[in-house]
Amino acid sequence: MALTKQLISKNCGKIKPESIDGYIQSGGYEGLKKALTMQPKEIIAEVKAAKLLGRGGAAYPVGAKWEHLLEIPHSPKFIVCNADEGEPGTFKDKILLSQDPLRVIEGMTIAAHVFGSHDAYIYIRGEYLAIQKVFQQAIDNAIAEGYLGNRILGTDFTFNIHITSGAGAYVCGENSALLNSIEGKPGYPRIKPPHLAEVGLFSMPTLVNNVESFATIPTIVLDGGNQYANYGTADSGGTKLICLSGLVVNQGVYEIPFGITLRDIIYNPEIGGGIANGKKLKFFHLGGQSGPCGIPEQLDTPYCYAALRSAGLSVGSGAVVILDESVCVVDYLKGVTEFFIHESCGKCTPCREGNQKVYAILCKLSDGTATTQDFKLLKRLITTMTAASFCGLGQSATIALATCLKHFSAEIEDHLHKKCPAGVCFQEQERAAI
Q1: End residue of a domain, out of 306, 324, 342
Q2: Global confidence as pTM
Q3: How many CA within 13 A on the CB side of residue 430?
Q4: What is the pLDDT of residue 209?
């Protein structure tokens, strides 16, 4: 039985991305046509039946989010697509945006029909400049053919999508910071409550979903929520786009049904194909830089939200980064922490100063000057940053560190004695001593 599926990825690489004719020939816009004959509550019922959890990383039930927004009486309601894919090791949304943008547009249009929305914004990260042009052409073509704009498909339904972009700030991937950026404000996270469904874009009720979440909606509406849910597990409905990178044979984006194991993902020839250069797996990093690291003993864990959570792991953004025996854990964590230093917005002290201090201690570990007190401070910083940081960036910045301390405490403590099992650290000192 095939371990990969092609539901939302079936058009990728097979049609001209911005072509309305190509999209329709592949079954596109049948979901929208069906949705226009349905009541909003009927569509939401299908989304709930699909057991669709938000694909951006937070994994909030999409059906529940939609139901909450529908009950809010205020209008207008805005639709926002979070395409600010800045998580290292994550490039699934890039595939959808560049190779099947009309699927994303169709999903957003169905959402607009549910909420009576006339305007939507898609926030595409600044580094995806070429993709922005492809997406704009797809929007223009959809308007020209009557699938977007005024009186969609001859109905009274009018809906437009506007592309906006930031300057590459990772923190703008957080939904409230993203809305601030769209409004022309600094991309700082907002205090919640009020929640974005109540006070969102331009202080109006707002739906914010990820690219992959919107891309699933046409399939769910057309085929039914129950059928989509059957591809997954009891709690994780459907399929997931994963991004496989690092020291693995077959790097790339794969659409998998929830429930296959991490071992299948990494070693099956249909997906990862094993570790590159015949080396051994040392650890893997799931869900992006803000996700946990896992070890070979966890390879038989099913890839779904509940099972991974129980194992201290997570789906997150869908990133799966593979590291082999040649990688030093301390050296890897330095790179992770450098990323968070660069991307911290600086609003709160625990994140702004904490990441700098964590990095300084990791550098001392890698050059042989760290003390036992430094090691104790490192553990205290994890607790402080997780509990006191203002938003998810600071709260999750030390997750990789915390899980590596759990799994590789002996290797990290070896650095206190100028020993690096991977042979990466202390090389300059060793060469100088010769």
Answers
A1: 324
A2: 0.94
A3: 9
A4: 97
